[in-house]
Amino acid sequence: MGSNILHDTNMSKHPFSDFTNLYPLSKTLRFELKPVGNTENMLMENNIVEIDKNRKLAYERTKPYFDKLHREFIQESLNNFEIDGLEEYLKTYKEYKTNKKDKKLFDKLKKSKAGIKISSNSVIQ
């Protein structure tokens, strides 16, 4: 009987077996939107593609300004911000992490969390 060299169990392992099935197989799926029925005519009649191109250009031009405004808003909002009790909470949390079964530490952690006070002297609230 003829024997297939690749499937012969008596022979040593395949020479490429150290290089195969090492990683999961990844596949990329690609989809395409194709207009159906009267959709293409409606898009052309209403000039949708041109309107979207103009909207994209306007977005690209204005985005840096909105990003700057957003950064300034965040900076101003957090400028005069204070958090009281955070150090105590962090200390208690680190203790609790080393011994999660200690009920007293858990209660102390909850109490210190409730004791955190946030205050802001910012104009924006």
TrEMBL record:
The name this protein goes by in its record: Uncharacterized protein
Protein source organism: candidate division WS6 bacterium OLB21
